[in-house]
Amino acid sequence: MNNLTKISSILVLLTLAFASENKNEVVEKNQVKPNKIAKGSTELEMPSIDIQKINDVRIEKSIRDKKYSEVLLKNAKVKNAEKNQLIKKQLKNSNKSDVLKRWSTDLRSKFLIGTIKGEDGARALKLPSAPESK
Q1: Is 123 helix (H, G, I), strand (E, B) or coil?
Q2: Contacting residues for 45 by C-beta, under 8 A, at least 6 apart
Q3: What is the pTM of this model?
């Protein structure tokens, strides 16, 4: 049993040693070298950039954004027009109902009754209590 633990510990140490050595080599191989500057020269090794392709992508994106904004604006205008029509209908209906309510309250309300008194304090006018029908 003692030999088994010694052998397994040695194997673990060897695998760690080989794994760390391989890792350094892999990292060195995969490192990206920066652009080189030629000594005594102003030339740089730059990757070629397709400016036309970038401009085309920007133009397409601006066209998509413009179309999207136009659709949003159109939807907002339609919704506002519908709201305005609804408000106008409600105002018209409310004005009619206000007039009717006012008339009904006026008809239901009692008229003020005033008496005209003469100089002696008695009623000056005497009206019949019920209209005479013919």
Answers
A1: strand
A2: 35, 36
A3: 0.34
